[in-house]
Specification:
The chain has one helix and 18 strands. It has one helix at 17-24, and strands spanning 9-12, 27-29, 33-37, 43-49, 56-63, 73-76, 79-82, 87-94, 105-114, 128-139, 155-159, 162-167, 173-180, 183-184, 190-191, 195-200, 208-213, 224-227. The strands form four sheets. Strands 1, 3, 5, 7, 9 and 10 form a six-stranded mixed beta sheet that branches. Pfam families: PapD_C, PapD_N. Keywords: Chaperone, Fimbrium biogenesis, Periplasm, Signal. This is Fimbria/pilus periplasmic chaperone.
């Protein structure tokens, strides 16, 4: 029977740079999020190969929350070889118009690390390519307030069986964790500016929330407590 070689099995997952490095034997990205200020010509993201011997093919692109690549941003270089113990810088460039100017817009930067096809004697081989996906915040000029103030300005109320969080600011809020009366909300993630998100309650009434958000540098805010109206 002819032996088959599995060239690649792709696992697409949202992972931290540390996990990406571990899964691919040395590839990491240099941040957990990208802030693209409109008064800058571009934003950048480092990709580092910590492997002592192996090169990787790096593919990158920007998409929206639904995974569509029809977005007003391009990455250069979109595909390149990254040798062992080397670093390369991705440049993200705004290439389209029509973005809101009164609030942040959120997109996603994807970086996929593809190892070389293994050399061997035809034995079956499982080769993994791992993708990391991090948020990119496009921030227009002249927005009121600042991003650091946003977590404390979130508004909470109950609507039927839903806990509703409203973000009245021009900036996004990314949750690291959220609890309602001490019970964890597992799907808490992101509240876009000037919008609201609903979470199903596990009890008839909610009285207090506690949460931490992720700041521009990937760190955490102090825990914030708020009453539910």
């Amino acid at each position: 029977m002819k032996k088959l070689t599995l060239l690649s099995v792709l696992f697409s997952m949202v992972v931290s740079p540390a996990v990406l490095a571990a899964e691919t034997g040395g590839i990491a990205v240099g941040a957990t999020r990208v802030i693209y200020n409109a008064d800058s010509r571009e934003a950048s993201l480092a990709v580092i190969n910590h492997s002592g011997a192996q090169y990787f093919l790096i593919q990158s692109w920007v998409d929206d929350s639904a995974g569509s690549k029809k977005v007003p941003f391009t990455i250069t270089p979109p595909l390149f070889r990254l040798n062992a113990n080397k670093e390369n810088m991705l440049r993200i460039i705004k290439s389209g118009e029509g973005l809101p100017q009164d609030r942040e817009s959120v997109y996603w930067v994807n970086v996929k690390a593809i190892p070389p096809a293994p050399e061997g004697d035809g034995q079956n081989t499982l080769q993994l390519a791992v993708k990391t996906r991090i948020k990119m915040f496009y921030r227009p000029k002249g927005l009121p307030g600042n991003a650091a103030e946003t977590p404390k300005k979130l508004e909470w109320h109950q609507q039927g069986d839903d806990l509703v969080v409203k973000n009245p600011t021009a900036y996004s809020a990314s949750f690291n964790n959220l609890t309602v009366d001490g019970k964890e909300v597992k799907d808490a993630n992101l509240v876009l500016p000037q919008s609201e998100v609903h979470y199903k309650l596990n009890s008839a009434h909610a009285s207090k929330v506690a949460y931490k958000c992720i700041n521009d540098f990937g760190g955490l805010t102090d825990e914030i407590s708020s009453s539910v109206n």
